[in-house]
Design brief:
Blueprint lengths: L5 E9 L5 E5 L2 E5 L7 E10 L2 E11 L25 H17 L10 E4 L7 E9 L2 E7 L6 E3 L8 H5 L1 H11 L5 E9 L2 E8 L5 H14 L3 E6 L5 E5 L4 E4 L2 E4 L10 H15 L4 E5 L7 H4 L4 E6 L2 H13 L6 E5 L9 H4 L4 E4 L7 H9 L4 E6 L2 H13 L3 E9 L8 E7 L2
Parallel strand pairs: 3-5, 6-21, 11-12, 16-17, 16-19, 17-18, 19-20
Antiparallel strand pairs: 1-2, 1-4, 2-3, 4-5, 7-8, 7-10, 8-9, 10-11, 12-13, 14-15, 20-22, 21-22
The structure holds S-adenosylmethionine.
Length: 424
């Protein structure tokens, strides 16, 4: 096998994942951690037809907007892609990526597109990878494009509670895992303490339960649950019911249920959605989760909240009953991809909100297109599926009247959107 080629090249632009893009002998070279305007030395690795990955060896001439990354494991840890550029340039790149994705469906960004950023130290939810080998646990995030776990001593993105508990997550993995076993730890900071779901390819053996319970109690975790693969998760220890608050309504968080990753991001989304529904008095909140939007919207409207996850709808309904909100908010368990709400069921609503997973809400958008609904607020964590769904709505006479881009996954290539669509 021939030695990988080392070449010097100029970086011309930034790609969708944050890679610098240059050319060598007519082929495209994607160089992670390189910036436009830089001359860099890279080691080439074939990536496909006429395309290479370039591992950055040296920045020969740095761009003026290059900054010292704040995290010591940046470039080793795959959690962040863009700490090496000024925040101004980073924000402009994120906005440009959204614009480019919308353009693939012939959509343009409304002139007054708002950009909202979150700050470091706000991520209340994270998934850590853990692996035990020779009685040592490695816990952290995966390296970029790799299964290797980069051990994490600290992470600037996390809330203080999550940062402070990293050694306890390690201790939990140490007692729960056997040698050569891996697990993911989904950790969520709730009002009642940390809620941890461990997911592994194996059962939790009886002999490991008591040690796990002891570590969880000592650490003061609210709940630790275990899931074997995709099976139903089982709570192993619960000292407090993990609770979250939407508007002033407390909701018991089901194990593994969706929650926005930061409180500030959630607040920005709620503000954009609330503004987006305008004066609507009857709102359908589709892919509604535990009530992130439904409860704030219930202050001004009657809300139908629909989600396919039964434990999520049960938790929402319990919260509705506790707060004596029945009649104001109603929960419905329904798979909206398989059976979207049809036009006749959409008739009573002055506004419809949808916030699907990454795949988007294609079937529901087609139903909205055929309905008489005049106002739709689309929330999305995937600009590509959003653009497809927006196209469906706009081909049915809707106009995109406002767009908010939320950067809730700081220093990554992800962007979230809230768009308001109206028609006469
Ligand atoms: C991105 S989350 C948004 C939840 C909520 N709007 C929030 O902000 O917390 C997507 C939600 O869609 C639900 N979901 C996933 N697939 C679904 C489907 N096919 N039909 C209905 N709901 C679905 C998930 O359970 C999850 O609660």
């Amino acid at each position: 096998m021939s030695e990988p080629l080392t070449v010097d090249l100029d970086i011309q632009s930034l790609g969708a994942q944050g890679d610098g893009i240059g050319r060598h002998d007519g082929a495209v070279v994607f160089v992670p951690y390189a910036l436009p305007g830089e001359r860099v030395r890279v080691r080439l690795q074939e990536r496909g037809h006429n395309a290479f990955s370039g591992r950055l060896i040296e920045v020969l001439a740095a761009a003026p907007n290059r900054v010292v990354p704040p995290c010591p494991v940046f470039t080793r840890c795959g959690g962040c892609a863009m700490q090496h550029v000024s925040m101004e340039e980073y924000g402009a790149w994120k906005k440009a990526q959204v614009a480019a994705t919308l353009a693939t469906r012939g959509l343009s960004m409304p002139e007054k597109t708002e950009i909202v950023s979150t700050a470091p130290g706000e991520r209340r939810r994270a998934v850590f990878a853990a692996h035990k080998e020779k009685d040592q646990v490695t816990l952290g995030f995966h390296a970029a494009m790799s299964h290797e776990i980069v051990p994490l001593e600290d992470c600037l993105l996390l809330t203080p509670a999550l940062r402070a508990s990293l050694p306890q997550f390690n201790a939990l993995a140490m007692v729960a895992l056997h040698n050569k076993q891996s697990a993911d730890l989904q950790v969520t900071e709730t009002l009642s303490g940390l809620d941890i779901l461990m997911q592994s390819g194996d059962d939790l053996p009886e002999a490991r339960r008591q040690p796990l319970i002891a570590v969880a109690r000592q650490a003061g975790f609210a709940r630790v649950s275990w899931a074997h693969g995709k099976r139903q998760p089982e709570p192993i220890v619960m000292e407090h019911v993990p609770q979250v608050r939407f508007a002033d309504i407390l909701v018991d968080l089901p194990i593994g249920a969706f929650l926005q990753p930061s409180l500030s991001g959630e607040a920005a989304l709620v503000a954009a959605v609330t503004k987006g529904v305008g004066k609507a008095k009857r709102v359908a909140d589709l892919y509604g989760g535990c009530g992130t939007f439904s409860f704030p919207l219930a202050k001004q409207a009657r809300v139908l909240s629909v989600d396919s996850a039964r434990p999520t709808v049960a938790a929402l309904t319990a919260a509705i009953n506790r707060a004596r909100l029945s009649g104001r908010v109603e929960g419905l368990a329904r798979d909206l991809d398989q059976s979207p709400l049809p036009p006749q069921d959409l008739k009573p609503f002055d506004a419809v909100v949808f916030d699907p997973p990454r795949a988007g809400a294609e079937m529901q958008s087609r139903m909205l297109a055929k309905s008489i609904v005049k106002r739709v607020v689309a929330v999305s964590c995937n600009p590509a599926s959003f653009a497809r769904d927006a196209r469906i709505l706009m081909d049915a006479g809707f106009a995109m009247t406002s767009l908010t881009v939320l950067d809730q996954f700081l220093w990554s290539h992800h962007a979230e959107l809230v768009a308001v669509f109206t028609r006469k």
